[in-house]
Amino acid sequence: MKDTENFLTDTEIVSNALNDYMEQSRSKMAPVIHQKPCEHIAELLKLDELVTDGGLTGDRLKNFLSNYLANTTRLHHPGYLAHQVATSHPTGALAAFIDATTNNPMAINEMGPAATSIEYFMINWMLTKVGWKTVPSHEQLDLASDHGAGVLTHGGSLANLTALLAARSAMVPDFWVNGNPGNLVVLVPEQSHYSMKRSVAILGLGEKNCITLPADKDGRVLPAQIPALINQLAQEGKMVIALVANACGTAAGLYDPLTEIAHICRNYNIWLHVDAAHGGGALVSDKYRYLVEGIELADSIIWDAHKMLRTPNVCAAVLVRQHQHLDHAFAQEASYLFHKKDQPGFDFMPRTVECTKAGLGLRLFMTLAAMGEKGLEDHVNFIVDMAKKAADYIDTQEDFEIAITPETNILCFRTDTDNDLQLEIRRRLLGKENFFISTTLYRGSRWLRLVFMNPVITMDDVKDLITEIREIKTSL
Hints:
Elements: H1 7-26, H2 38-44, H3 47-53, H4 58-70, H5 90-102, H6 113-130, E1 149-153, H7 156-171, H8 175-178, E2 184-188, H9 194-202, E3 210-212, H10 226-235, E4 239-246, H11 258-268, E5 271-275, E6 300-304, H12 305-308, E7 316-320, H13 323-327, H14 360-395, E8 401-402, E9 410-414, H15 419-432, E10 438-442, E11 445-451, H16 459-475
Parallel strand pairs: 2-3, 2-4, 4-5, 5-6
Antiparallel strand pairs: 1-7, 6-7, 8-9, 9-11, 10-11
Helix pairs in contact: 1-4, 5-14, 6-14, 7-9, 14-16, 15-16
């Protein structure tokens, strides 16, 4: 009882503090980023004292929260333009609170029937957006059915690993028992996420067997040159088990030509995996759906809801066109979990690396249920449109240039051609604490990089950023 006696009061303290936090962030009353050394923050938060004495409630909780929130990076601030992480919807944030309080590790149905049911529903919602077949839960494991399947994981890196594991299982069924035959390779885009090489290494294929696909000058995969690469690898005794395409790439946000790539993969019997962790948001937009044309021809997809879909961290989907490839990716048994029992629901655990898994579907569902499909589509359209408007504006400034016209909500630009200057500008921007942006290497040069995630950002904010960059450059 002692654990819960202050629950209502403390919940009110937390909700009031978070409400003020979001208001201060949106109105720019506080800095977007405020970086201090770890030891300084630990002392400010009185971590030693609280760990020793306990009693984090009431005024102690209020003071702790005040200092904690003052040292966060404010993703609700219009100056937040740095990374591919959602400005989370407040209702979605409540889902994380509900999930943490109920604490149901729902990968096994009996440990969280409501959370499992919601994840099942949301997976089917995502499969439908891709264009893949869904079935009722009691038919999920029917080997004769050609329906799709999926699972939500804690992040896109884990999702990519799971998808490539499904590819490995489908293409080399005896790998789990007999190990690596030594000739397997995976083809990835030039602009692929770092998790692709990491996944290939973790899967026991060796990082050197993660081979870069031919690309055009902007970094998009060139389908016409893929057959020659496959044939060359075959002559060297290599077997391509998977080819990865971007939807979209991390650096500049460009989409690969999925339909052409898919036809090549079909001709050569190669698993096609589409990394749509970020750009999968186009699937909910009639206006930008064309960017992912052909995605339904893939064998597997990952799609992060915690990027363009305003869902709190983390909620990443692994989706496959044929369910059996995901259901058979893991060939292990656990008698205390898998045995004959009454099972009105569905166990997700056989589809994922994780045993204990949060109710991630609740975060996506409550965000979607608050916004509605039209509201979510409007948000995706808004952030992509903002990137295009910002690019048009910056491109008219004589002392700036854009790297390429944005296809999604990512914009790369620079002032001058000095790579070190771009890094110094970012460093000084962070010090001024009004804007938080990133940089990237693209086409061999360093660029300033904006990712539009915030639903309250305006062109005035973009113009203020350009003014601040000019002031910094003048002062150097």
